[in-house]
């Protein structure tokens, strides 16, 4: 009888992440991982522990890819860069976006802990918004999230796009500008 193959959790996670990226979350099964590694499912189950642990590792890896997009400088505005990165991620990494936000989502209450909003310091904030209090900034961010997420979802599902960077930036600038104007109007002209 040939010796049993042994795999580390890292080997399994790397294979699972490749499957996730190429084929989507439904393709990530013990059977598909075993097939990709040329093994039976038994050593996969033994090394993996649980599908929940593997899913958590896949979420961590997918978030690292998202971070790369959101931390890229597309414009001079750090707030806009986060939104552009999110949209580009959805368009370029459809299976990862679907996994994080459609097929295996977390509640909005839990998203702040898992997907922290990077808020530039107060000096950077005043450069882009003028004087603004946290409540108003939160209101703009809340409205912007739904626009950005809707656009990103449409691109990830293929119901819109593909859009080039210029169009993505323009759409996000126009929507963000509308949210800022609305807040100015409702607060009597100041933020």
In short:
The chain is mainly α. It is built from ten helices and no strands.
Q: Percentage of helical residues?
A: over 70%
Indicate the proportion of strand residues. Answer: under 5%
Give the averaged pLDDT, no decimals: 85
Number of helices: 10
Give the ordered list of helices and strands: HHHHHHHHHH
Largest sheet: none
Number of strands: 0
Q: Give the CA-CA distance, first to last residue.
A: 74 Å
Which secondary-structure class do the elements indicate? mainly alpha
Low-confidence stretches: none
What's the structural domain tally? 2
Overall spatial form: elongated
Rg of Cα set: 20 Å
Helix and strand layout, with pairings?
Blueprint: H1 9-23, H2 30-37, H3 41-48, H4 51-70, H5 78-92, H6 94-103, H7 108-114, H8 122-129, H9 134-157, H10 165-186
Helix pairs in contact: 1-2, 1-4, 1-6, 2-3, 4-5, 4-6, 5-6, 5-9, 5-10, 6-9, 9-10
What do you see in this structure?
With 191 residues, this protein is mostly helical. It has two domains: 9-49, Arc Repressor Mutant, subunit A (Orthogonal Bundle), CATH 1.10.10; 61-186. Helix content is 72%, strand content 0%. The chain has ten helices and no strands. The protein starts with 8 loop residues before the first helix and ends in a 5-residue tail after the last helix. The model has no long low-confidence stretch (mean pLDDT 85).
């Amino acid at each position: 009888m040939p010796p049993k193959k042994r795999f580390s959790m890292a080997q399994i996670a790397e294979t699972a992440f490749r499957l996730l990226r190429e084929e989507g979350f439904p393709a990530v099964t013990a059977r598909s991982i075993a097939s990709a590694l040329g093994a039976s499912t038994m050593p996969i189950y033994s090394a993996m522990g649980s599908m929940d642990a593997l899913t958590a590792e896949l979420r961590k890896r997918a978030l690292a890819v998202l971070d790369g997009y959101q931390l890229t400088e597309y414009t001079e505005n750090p707030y806009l860069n986060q939104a552009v990165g999110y949209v580009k991620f959805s368009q370029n990494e459809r299976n990862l976006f679907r996994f994080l936000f459609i097929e295996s989502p977390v509640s909005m209450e839990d998203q702040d802990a898992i997907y922290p909003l990077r808020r530039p310091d107060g000096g950077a904030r005043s450069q882009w918004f003028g004087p603004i209090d946290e409540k108003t900034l939160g209101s703009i961010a809340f409205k912007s999230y739904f626009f950005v997420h809707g656009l990103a979802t449409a691109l990830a599902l293929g119901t819109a796009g593909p859009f080039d960077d210029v169009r993505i930036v323009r759409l996000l600038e126009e929507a963000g500008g509308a949210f800022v104007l609305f807040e100015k109007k409702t607060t009597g002209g100041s933020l």
